[in-house]
Design brief:
Elements: H1 9-29, E1 48-50, H2 51-64, H3 67-82, H4 85-96, E2 110-112, H5 128-144, H6 152-165, H7 183-197, H8 204-224, H9 262-275, E3 276-277, E4 280-282, E5 294-295, H10 296-308, H11 312-323, E6 336-337, H12 347-354, H13 362-374
Helix pairs in contact: 1-13, 2-3, 2-5, 2-13, 3-5, 3-6, 4-6, 5-6, 5-7, 6-7, 6-8, 7-8, 10-11, 10-13
Bound molecules: beta-D-glucopyranose (BGC).
The site of beta-D-glucopyranose (BGC) has 10 residues, from helix 2.
Length: 384
Amino acid sequence: MTHPPTAPLTEVDRWRELARRSHALIAEHQQPGGAYPAAPTFSAYRGYAWLRDGAFTAEGMSRYGDLGSAGSFHDWVSGVLAGRRDQVDSLVARVGAGQEVAQSELLPTRFTFDGADGSDPWWDFQTDGYGTWLWSVVTHADRHGLDLERWRAGIEVAVDYACLTWSWPCYDWWEEHVEHRHLSTLGALHAGLAAVADAGVLDDARTAAARAAAASVRDLALREGVSGGRPGHLVKWIGSDAVDGSLAACVVPFGLVPVGSPVADATLDAVRADLAVGGGVHRFRADVFYGGGQWLLLTCLLGWNEAVAGDRASALARLRWVADHATPAAGELPEQVPDHLLHPEHHAEWVDRWGTVATPLLWSHGMYLILADELGLLPDTESR
Ligand code: BGC
């Protein structure tokens, strides 16, 4: 990294201002019922909230100290999931009786703001969001000393659903490859189930089930999800050798492999070697979505890992790269930027199909808040 580890004051002020802006923007778009829209103005996402995006966005708001916003998001998720109690009970009973269930009968990936499935077809059946939400709500409660009882009804549904489905192939973070078992999905499920099993909010039977499922997830991941190299790195999906920018989450925050362990270090090294170009991070080499640009939220995720590993200079360089890509007038963070495209020949087809890249993406702003907090760069509490 060529940047000095400490930045001139004016740049730090700019970073703090972007944190203020990120918080304000997320708060402004949060729905009265608590849902965080993924990208309020983007054609394909408008009107929907994802558990994956929202869980990380809530973590950013929780770190910023906005208990009202994070709590209201968790209220919304808990209420929506509690409303799915019968659906999940029926799935558990039917699978237990050896019956097949169709993908269309499973819980959705994204919800309308009133908790419905919505009528637009989507790549439904993704389990990572359920694990990530469990991790997020437990982390929020721990941080602020809150009683998880408030969210127990939804937590129980998420636990039952995760215990039922954790070993099933499903779409990944990028809503692709439903035929595979993805390591980032396993990482999210492990984190959520392990966190909630230790949180004291579940009855004995669910605590035991969550703990056993978390252990099985980790066994599977470590047995079949590590590449053949020495040391091996976590792989994009079981049976592949490829890496994916989301794998960094399996180290921090999900703790599927411990910080500083050989597999963790090899995974972060592989992400950097394969996917980081000039500071920003790609999703995966074969990515053609909008030509395969660099994702701000993945850049923050890698920076978060670097900060926790003690590499402050690299983490600051990631923050700087992300801040430099905020739109100049409105201070909005996009989903991805086209500075370096892996497959430029595919850029135009996505612009034609869905319009310009999702901007703002609330998940990008949430991840910025997390990285800024990790680096001690949020504005002082009094000036927020
Ligand atoms: C991404 C998902 C994300 C969704 C909403 C999709 O294009 O692949 O990871 O959850 O957008 O932001």
